[in-house]
Description:
By secondary structure, this protein is α/β, with parallel strands linked by helices. It contains 35 helices and 12 strands. 59% of the residues lie in helices and 7% in strands. The protein is elongated and about 105 Å long. Bound molecules: guanosine-5'-triphosphate and magnesium ion (MG). Residues 15-16, 35-36 line the site of magnesium ion (MG). Residues 169-190 are annotated as: Disordered.
Amino acid sequence: MGISIALAGNPNCGKTTMFNELTGASQYVGNWPGVTVEKKEGRYTRDRDVTITDLPGVYSLSPYTPEEIVTRDYLLSGQPDVVVNLVDATNLERNLYLTTQILDLGLPVVVALNMMDLVRKNGDKIDVEGLSRRLGCPVVETTALKGQGVEALIAKAIEAASAPTPCASSAAPSSAPAASAPTPAASPTCASAAPASPALRFPGAVEDALAAIAAIVGDRVAPARARWFAVKLLEDEQLTVDALDLSADDLACIAAIREALEDAEDDDAESIVTNARYDAIGEVCAACVERSPKALTTTQRIDRVVTNRVLGLPLFIAVMFCVYYLAVSVAGGLFTDWANDGLFGDGWLYTGTEQYEATVADFDAALETAEGVAAFEAGALVEPDPADFGLYHVGIPVVVGGWLDAVGCAPWLQSLLLDGILAGVGAVLGFVPQLIVLFLLLSFLEGCGYMARVAFIMDRVFRRFGLSGKSFIPMLIASGCGVPAVMATKTIENEKDRRMTIMTTTMIPCGAKLPIIALVFGALAGGDYAATWWVAPLFYFLGLAAIIISCVMLRKFRAFAGEAAPFIMELPQYHIPTLKNVAMATWERVRSYIVKAGTIIFLSSMVIWFLMNFGVYEGRFGLLDTSTDGYLGHSLMAGLGGGLAWLFAPLGFGSWEATVTSLTGLVAKENVVATVGILTSLGEAGEGDPGMWAGFAALMGGSSAAIMAFCAFNLLCAPCFAAIGTIRRQMASAKWTWATIGYLTGFAWCVGLMIYQLGGLALGEVAPSGWTALAVAVLAGMLFLVFRPAPGDRARKASAAAAAQGA
Ligand SMILES: Nc1nc2c(ncn2[C@@H]2O[C@H](COP(=O)(O)OP(=O)(O)OP(=O)(O)O)[C@@H](O)[C@H]2O)c(=O)[nH]1
Ligand SMILES: [Mg+2]
């Protein structure tokens, strides 16, 4: 017969680690509380008849948070034959609180004392026999991380499940609402079950009250579960009261019992029960746990430095600097260039690069002269072939291009495949090596327990702006790429905080936006870095300021009103994470990035290619000849840009070219510079080319204010398709995705308007007009939203004032 085992316990006590060990699954394990949020089922590898269910970690069985409801419903459902209650043995007092509640359920329970490796390392001792006797259930020592004790644990669980009594699986009343107590399964062994006499007893008055309530409930519930219902009725938990369908008389009797107890103890019933539990646990621990007199554990010693008020922040900045240096500079420099220019570019030369570059420079210099050009045309001067200089391989586009040529593929299809799809998908995949390194390092920091501290440190800063410390990690990641940043918002439990973070985090300039900043920088400063060094940091500051202002403003709306959720996170013990866990966490993140490249980017690259390569030329619609100058002016994209250009006129860049540039940026921000290249007929000159700066400045009508407005708009507006796709997934709602796109684009437009109209006015580039008035109005509106009290604040202040007056 199949046996169903439920794994229940506090957050971060090792349930998923145990589950993976038992079932061979690879569910996500992280070193912070609240990793698992829904139940997962698997089969025991050594006995396929045994089903194991991993449940979200909970501190109690009260139906408040979604995780608590999932766990409580499952335990009450009658499905588990036995509950394996994992407890973090390094923190027995707190963990046993849930144990006492699980014991009340009347199901067979086996307690797993997990993390015994840490207990031994700390030099503490636990009397397992004594604990088992006092709790009235088997207790097994385990170290899930190393797979120790897990077989003995399951053997005990199977034994307990097979014992004929006690049984509570048919105990839930049939009228119980589905939300809390799904329909029970009938079980013949229960008919004769005697009322369970709890091993863990409360003070006499409480036990008397419970017995009296149990008598009123009578046989409406199975005897084994009578205690659970009696406790819940004493606590006056509405869900249970509704479920039992008691008569008005019975309810009045129970209320009288409760009031009598509350009067006698001078406390409310819920607190009385909670205190009774803690007192009982205190006695158990005093008798069974012997703490080593050692003053501080390793974790406490590390935390003294890491979470220190003065040292915490600088230390964190140093750690992050190292992570970024390794990922972006070292790995990025090594691998991303290789992936972008080698694998998805022309090819890559591993050795003899210096000699090759020198020869190319000579070749380029020769082409500058008339003789050189003549020699080149005559075939006397040949472009140097990198393959002659050392170890070289060609890029995928070259290989694919060769195949397509060989099979006589139509030029338009070649262009679609190479310039459209391969270029688009390749640009995204080119970042994969960098991301792997970044995520490996971040997963390590997460797995060892450091990230939980970071959120705690940043909370002190962020709280002032209505954001929780947990929003910081996404923003940090966003400076690399918005996609993983949006995914990282998953760890923010509070829905409002999470939505707000998703909506704003992509305002931080990501790696792909840096070329835009460089281009603007060049166009404004003409390469005079010494005099204008402040332009680039200015845009980072703009991103950060935009987030802060947005959060302060958004908090004034009902959908986001309220303070950031109080920062409650138990700081886990430090430990070296297993290689498997780090690799899994990294893969999980990289995988979604790759999947996105294969789906959203794939499709959008095709669409953009189509819009840029098709159009009406000499009265005929068709594929444009990309070798003619200004072909883009005839494309569908130009038409689209022309149609939308009026939107950007107030921002100073109302030409179809500038509009098209912003539109292609939606696919990937890298496209902005590439499009400027095509528009200025400079090809792939790149953002560092002075010709490109001049061309770009001309595109913007030579106005510095327009250039700044263009840059601000492109940095702050809706992110690339890839990030939008991720936002859609994390928001799990089309409405919120559109709200995000709308908010970001609207906000970016307003900032662009203010920069162009007001900045241009100051610089003498723009004459006052109706738009100037609108820009002033927008500025005033923003200031109003920032400084206006949040809804509810006024009421709170008024009541506080009234209370103060009354006092
Ligand atoms: N030292 C030690 N660490 C462990 C042990 N078991 C689990 N861990 C670590 O504890 C952390 C939490 O493990 P999880 O399995 O995710 O915990 P969980 O109970 O599923 O947590 P939630 O899903 O948040 O409820 C991870 O970093 C594990 O590697 C153990 O026996 N010893
Ligand atoms: Mg888990």
